[in-house]
Amino acid sequence: MVEGAGFEPAKHEAADLQSAGFDRSPTPPRLQKLGNSACAQLPCQLKLNYLLFFAYKRSKKIDLLSKKVIEKSLDSKEKETLEKLILLETVGSTNDEAKKLIETIEKNKAVAVFSEEQTIGRGTKGRSWVSPYGENIYFSLGWKSSLSINKLMGLTIAIASSLAKDLNLLTEKKIKIKWPNDLYIDNKKFGGILVETTSTDLGTNLVIGIGINVQMKKESGSSIDQAWSSLHPYLTDEITRSDISSIILKNTVRLTIDYPSNGLAPYLDHYNQVNFLRDKICEVEINGKLITGKAGQVNNKGELLLMSEEKNIYLSGSEVNIKKTF
Ligand code: BTN
Q1: Residue bearing the CA closest to ligand 1, atom 9
Q2: Is the Cβ atom of 92 under 6 angstroms away from ligand 1?
Q3: pLDDT tens sequence across 77-131
């Protein structure tokens, strides 16, 4: 486990050295054996490779997560709420890590976990979440909330809305939300939110898991069975994964402060403006039955209106699977 900024993951070093013509070790093996004094006697080609490697490292800014940048935009109230911020190199799922860490924090406080990769990243509805090293953002916020589960029904809608709004400051392309909480750009999914809850004597322990594709390579995403994209090609400025992570962290921590008193209402208008499904004909599976209808607005309980030929139905996230849109 790596906590804090400034760590230098060995994987990056190894990859960089390999592309610079070295084998695996961060220090070229022959240099290690010879020591610095022997450098002068090195064969020309090896010296050249060594110099080229450092020039290459300088020219290619490696975009690692940095704790300093990630926490830069938290205000004092948000800092007080966030008891721990942890950066990992690798983990099974940041949601599982946050779930464990919730046990170590106080009521109404939060713990944040980022990882450079996940080996068993989870999506909604039992799907897996492709999580290659260093290409995207994998984040979970553990929140020991004193609210009961029925007061938290609209939370995922609120998160999706506030996140989409702030991420949209980074790009001119409209970010849309496919109900309930898939983030879309250019008609393709680039982010998802998985909220997992456990009821306790004190209220509810929540884990808000967010995955954002930032610069996912085509090969990395080859197993994904739907149209997907990444955020980086749409960004107007040179923005790092840590800058994007800072937006995610601020938004989610802010919600743990605002949502208990304000609920979903402040987010609903924006949500409906960017509602990807609105006015689309959808085929929906509800408890094993297929129903076709036109999607409408999301209401103050976070439910999506579906107008079928027979009747209007309000869909709630847990029991519904949107199969197709036309
Ligand atoms: C979805 O299926 O749309 C939700 C995807 C949620 C993925 C994130 S990545 C960080 C966190 N850890 C996980 O295992 N899943 C969530």
Answers
A1: 211
A2: no
A3: 999 999 999 999 999 999 999 999 999 999 999 999 999 999 999 999 899 999 9
pLDDT tens per residue across span 47-63 = 676 566 555 544 455 68
What is the pLDDT, as a whole number, of residue 322? 81
- Cα separation values, 36 from 30, 51, 75, 100, 242, Å: 11, 14, 47, 46, 36
What ligand 1 atom has the least distance to the C-alpha of 121? 14
Q: Is any atom of ligand 1 closer than 6 Å to the C-beta of 194?
A: yes
Ligand 1 neighbour 97 (Cβ under 6 A): no
- At residue 66, the pLDDT reads 97
Please state the pTM of the whole predicted model. Answer: 0.82
Which residue has 């713990």 as its token pair? Answer: 111
HSE-CB of 62 using CA atoms within 13 angstroms: 21
Of 128, 183, 137, the C-alpha closest to 159 is 183
The reply to whether ligand 1 has any atom less than 6 angstroms from the CB of 118 is yes
Which atom of ligand 1 is the closest one to the Cα of 129? 7
Q: So what CATH class is 281-325?
A: mainly beta
Question: What are the domain boundaries of the chain?
Answer: 10-59, 67-273, 281-325
- Cβ of 179 closer than 6 Å to ligand 1, yes or no, is no
Residue of the nearest CA to atom 2 in ligand 1?
A: 123
Position 183: which residue type?
Answer: L
String of b and e for 174-212 (b: at least 16 CB within 10 Å)?
ebbbbbbbbbbbeeebbbbbbbbeeeeeebbbbbbbbbb
- pLDDT for 51: 65
Domain 67-273: CATH superfamily, name plus number: Bira Bifunctional Protein; Domain 2 (3.30.930.10)
Q: Which residue puts its alpha carbon closest to atom 10 of ligand 1?
A: 138
